[in-house]
Design goal:
Belongs to the CBF/MAK21 family. The protein is an all-alpha fold. It has two domains: 1-62, no CATH class; 88-145 and 155-215, no CATH class. It has helices spanning 4-18, 29-36, 40-57, 64-70, 82-92, 100-114, 119-135, 175-180, 186-192, 214-222, 246-250. Helix 1 (4-18) runs parallel beside helix 3 (40-57) and helix 6 runs antiparallel to helix 7 (119-135). The protein is elongated, with a radius of gyration of 25 Å. The termini are far apart.
Length: 254
Amino acid sequence: QLPAGLYKKVLVILHDSILPYMNEPTLMIDFLTLAYGIGGAISLLALNGLFVLIHQHNLEYPDFYKKLYSLLDPSVYHVKYRARFFHLLDLFLSSSHLPAYLVAAFIKRLSRLALTAPPDALLMVIPFICNLFRRHPSCKVLVHRPNGPEDISEDPYIMEEEEPSKSRALESSLWEIRTLQSHYHPEVAKAAAVLNQSLSEMEDDISGLLELSAYELFDKEVKKKATDVPLEFEQVRGLFGKKNDVFAEHFSLD
């Protein structure tokens, strides 16, 4: 049993400062799988080490994607390790052999959680979702569903379901992204509107968006050059701006 703070310090450096120098990295399987099951930030940090073992040492983890799916909660857009998590999530969902129901469940859950996410996270996750559609064209039914539910309450997707195969994501539609097209931040609304058009075959490079912060977003907006905005106004007709006042009878502005 390790304190949470020590767990985090070990897991942050485990994948590049410990595992490469071990004669038998597979000895860390139990430690990493237990850490992965703890939840929260510790599970996010354990992903790095697990990825090394799965990718380089043929570790089989039957419930890996189920656990990964359960890590998607509202805090995932706010945690300190957000960039690292989405970088690994992108790697884990890069295989074209993943079943459509699994990818659709991730797309739908990310979209639902995006409704309460900050703008800097939205500008990263929307291109992320678009990339998933490019890799898995069978999931585009979520966007192009003409006979979808008319009322949001009729959405067949089960958010509380822990098993992706039982979430009924493929039967749903992405009304969440349609909602984000009316977002108060113009860049977010513009990014969400991309799904209204046919996506290009080339994937978006999200590496530069993973580290995007609210400060950088605000700084970018502040530095934009102001443009003259035409406004509607009522032309002045009298001395004090009123159409029919006593001064308008005796004074003229010409």
